[in-house]
Specification:
This protein has about 325 residues and is of the alpha+beta class. It has 2 domains: about 100 residues, Immunoglobulin-like; about 170 residues, Roll (C8orf32 fold). The protein is built from 6 helices and 16 strands. A 5-stranded antiparallel beta sheet has the order 3-6-1-16-10, with no helix packed on it. A 5-stranded antiparallel beta sheet has the order 13-12-11-9-14. The N and C termini lie far apart (about 50 Å).
């Protein structure tokens, strides 16, 4: 699926500020389930943008505005093509997560973090799901995902960045960041590495994630989580919408929790009070004739390769019989 995304943030100050320094994380990444086709950033007032990849693998666009200004506009435009995620064929036992090499590799995604620091309530809830799910790791992860999805009611503005996961579980209400943080905390509390994902979702309703009839929507940024599966990579799940991550999800980056992948973080010099407005416009594009031709050619190539493999195997078998 081809998606064009326009992310815009506008700061307005009640008095001019003299300088601001900012970091933007809005660029979709390229990975096995999506390809970034184009991306650009512009600011008003104009500034020089310095881009780099942070420790977690997320693109960061850093920029500063030194002249006095009463407003700051940041616009990031991207085109991305999403694909079906490769199927996880591994279904290891839950005990596989205690392997020392696996734990060492994922240690950062096993420990409590500021937004995923669980207590007894979260741990007990996760343990009950673990006991009910049996020894299969995938069943445990999916059970924790379903528990979070069914335990919390989506309500915009009901929480704030920094609310503890124990409070989210007790109040049973939150937004997508809360769903993701609670799922991460539950996974980690029973020894399953999990990480926070920041991204976009093409929908008109964050509460359900419905596929809209329209080809253009205005949304906010979205969040979900990924759980590590030994021998299988990362399983991406969206507990806000009780679904697996699919073609309409676009990943920006991941980290231990929200603090590692905030869309925009900055400071300014001055005593003004800021106000903030954020919007994300996404347009879904139909598959072009060229895209269809490339897909057909790739499918034919895979078919030809499979036939060639079968022919080689048949020839080898015939030789063995002789």
């Amino acid at each position: 699926m081809r998606l064009d995304i326009r992310y815009r943030t506008r700061f307005e100050y009640d008095a001019p500020v003299h300088e601001s320094q900012n970091e933007l994380r809005a660029a979709p990444m390229s990975d096995p389930r999506q390809l970034l086709i184009s991306y650009r950033v512009a600011t008003i007032p104009a500034s020089r943008v310095f881009s780099f990849t942070d420790y977690w693998g997320t693109r960061v666009d850093a920029f500063g505005v030194r002249e006095p200004h009463a407003a700051l506009d940041v616009v990031a435009e991207a085109s991305v093509e999403t694909r079906r995620a490769p199927l996880l064929t591994a279904s290891p036992p839950i005990d596989s997560v205690i392997d020392s090499a696996f734990r060492d590799e994922h240690l950062e995604y096993l420990q409590p973090t500021p937004h995923a620091d669980w207590g007894r309530g979260v741990a007990d809830e996760a343990r009950r799901e673990l006991d009910r799910s049996g020894p299969d790791l995938m069943r445990v992860v999916l059970a924790l995902h379903r528990r979070v999805a069914s335990s919390i009611r989506y309500e915009p503005g009901s929480t704030y960045v920094g609310v503890e996961v124990e409070e989210v579980l007790a109040r049973r209400v939150g937004v997508c960041q809360d769903f993701a943080h609670l799922a991460i905390a539950m996974c980690r509390s029973v020894g399953i590495p999990a990480r926070y994902v920041s991204g976009y979702l093409f929908t008109t309703n964050d509460a359900t994630g419905d596929d809209p009839d329209a080809d253009a929507v205005r949304v906010q940024t979205h969040a979900w989580f990924e759980a590590a599966v030994p021998g299988g990579g990362w399983l991406a799940l969206d507990p806000t919408n009780a679904t697996e991550v699919g073609l309409r999800h676009v990943k920006i980056g991941h980290g231990r929790d929200y603090n590692d992948v905030p869309p925009l973080r900055g400071v300014f010099s001055g005593s003004a009070e800021p106000s903030l407005g954020v919007s994300v416009d996404i347009r879904r594009l139909g598959t072009s004739a060229a895209d269809a031709a490339r897909s057909a050619a790739a499918a034919q190539q895979r078919l030809d390769e499979a036939r060639a493999r079968r022919a080689r195997l048949a020839h080898q078998a015939q030789q063995a019989q002789q």
